[in-house]
Predict the 3D structure of the following.
Amino acid sequence: MRTKFTQETECSNGCDTVSTHETAESVEADMKWPKKVKHRNQILAKVYRPCQGRDSYRVTWYAAGRRQMKSFPNYAGKGGAKEYVESLVREPAKQSQAVMLSPAQAADALASIERLNTFHQSTGHKVSLLAAVSEYCEAASKLRGRTLAEAAEVFLRTTATVKRKDLMAAVEEFIAAEESRAQAGNGRRAQSGKYHYNRAIQLRRFAGTFTGYALCDLGKHDLDAFMSSKTIAEFSAKSRNHHRAVIRQLLEWGGRKDYLPVGHRLLEADGMRPERANTAEVLFYTAKEFRALLEAADGPMRAMIGIGGLAGLRTQELLRLDWADVWRVPEQIEVTAGKSKTRQRRLVEICPALAAWLHPFRVFTEGKVCALHEITWQQHFVKLCAESGMRRKANGLRHAFCSYHFALHANENLTAALAGHSPTMIHAHYKGLVTKVEGEKWFAVAPAKADNILVLGKEAAV
């Protein structure tokens, strides 16, 4: 590297504008001033001689866009201007610009680096001085006069810190928290025990797929992988939608518990989009099968089957039903809001055939129509179907009521009002399944002999 010292003639009033380009290796009496110090044809600094009002040599250079100046008592001696300017240009040649800083800038830079080192030691987060300044400038431009400290305080007041929670442990905590809703109390209706039971199975199946995961570790790709897994693919579209629903509940609860960050967007995963479930085949009993079930049953089982088939109540609504609900409103069964699936009160007409089946139960005025648990009830019903020479049909009594009632009256609004359904659902699922004649036969299924259905003693309702 060769650094060139060129000569420049200083104007009569001491200005620095007139110059010539003349190489000088030593100080000469007729040297031209100011001296320009170049490196690769770029002027890095200038040296000015003493002049009127100044008794020292001055070195000027630019650092960070600002002109800098330093004075020296001599030019060529030790500690003089020439020695300093040579060291000044030597550093940029080594690709270091530290020497170009003013003393104040250098002090600020060193203090800033020391502060960043302390931050690194206390947090483990390493940040360069350039990154820190760039981030500050970007944030300050958005804050419009407010400080970063003010912004941080607001952020901390409104943003929760995410806590790591093992996925299976989170599922168990969620199930335990929801369990209380399956218990009736203070006059309110409990959440369906069957629903709570099935949800627990589905969530444990989900958590078991991601052993060792925390809830906050889940990504969209994990949800996609679970919903496309072989285990889930074997279920029907309706069942897969049920899995999506309970996972959604878990994730929403996790956000409320600060186990997930706000705005996690996991529900935007492709696998979480509900599927359009194909309409399953509607299975129901014939009038002949219905009569066989009623005549084979006794006690509250007979009342349950009669109400299910001729009033269309859902199984859970039947199991919540009290005898007072049967007799409170003349010639109608009252399904109260607390016992209805839709949580809306409705009245269902007691047709003549149902009135005949229920007549022997007039002695019961309080207590549940059937005190059995749903699982026990279903077991008894499966056994009754087998004894009657038929197989159990899922929701067969309710499906039969809707199908035959719609065929008999050709009025989806009326059937929907009695069944606690929507007219759209009635029209979509039950239209054209049976004829009006078959509907008449269904609602004409009455006891053959009154003495065959006598209920003796209140113990029969237990």
